[in-house]
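QA checklist item 7 of 12: single-chain prediction sanity check.
[x] sequence parsed
[x] length recorded as 278
[x] structure emitted
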Amino acid sequence: MRPDAAPPQTEENMNTYPDSGALVAAAVIAGFLGLLFGVAAYVLSSWFLMKIFQKAGVQGAWRAWVPVYNFMVFSKLGDVSPWVPLIGWGAAIILAPLGLGFLGGLLVVASTAMAAWRVGLKLQKDTPWVVLYVLLGIVWLGINAFDKSVWNPAIPPASWASNGFFGDRTVWEGVPVQPSAAPPAGYQPQAGYQPPAGYQPPAGYQPPAGYQPPAGYQPPAAPPAAQPPTYQPPAAPPAAQPPAAQPPTYQPPAVPPAPEPPAAPEAPGAPDGGEPRV
């Protein structure tokens, strides 16, 4: 057989090509299914986040459909700085060539789990619900999106509220500020300055030995305490004067009685011896 002659076609060589084609087909199918699963997970998680944002009073449904940004808003609602998960994603990308990208992923998982715990408390979910979020986050989102829970931010402040890295200090328009910036319950402010042990404050001014203040000085007398003015009742009004006497009513003069007519004169008598005239 010549050196450049092709090797004889054996059964082993003939089965190599079909196996390679099957692997390629399986890889294509797996990639398609993975892409389909990723798109479905993105759509469902964004939809569930939109419902939770509506319960929390977030303005703008578009916030739930922007990748990465939607979980930054979710972290803010959970009293975690939205920059923490962003730092985690950035660290995962940067450290991936070194094989340390999982460190950034751990930061993302931890920060979003902390936020999920706080969001669950505001939706009347107990602490054990965080386990469901870590194991099946999309199921946790779906339950909180469509149950009848009501958003109630009046819960005790987070234990990391005063932490400069995890505590939320950002203010975004359209995203309600959560009342959790106060220090946690039981927090005691730091005591004021304490002098070092054994420190003695300097004594006050002491006059030199033998010093006598000048005689005759008398401090001014304290002014007498002001006395409130004695209450004087108002003077009684003068007694009313009786009304002046009214002048008598004018009476017209009495009409004089009419004069009586004079009496008729008596008839003269007849002369002596004669008869009266008729």
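[x] summary fact logged: Confidence is low (pLDDT under 50) at residues 181-185, 273-278.
[ ] second reviewer sign-off
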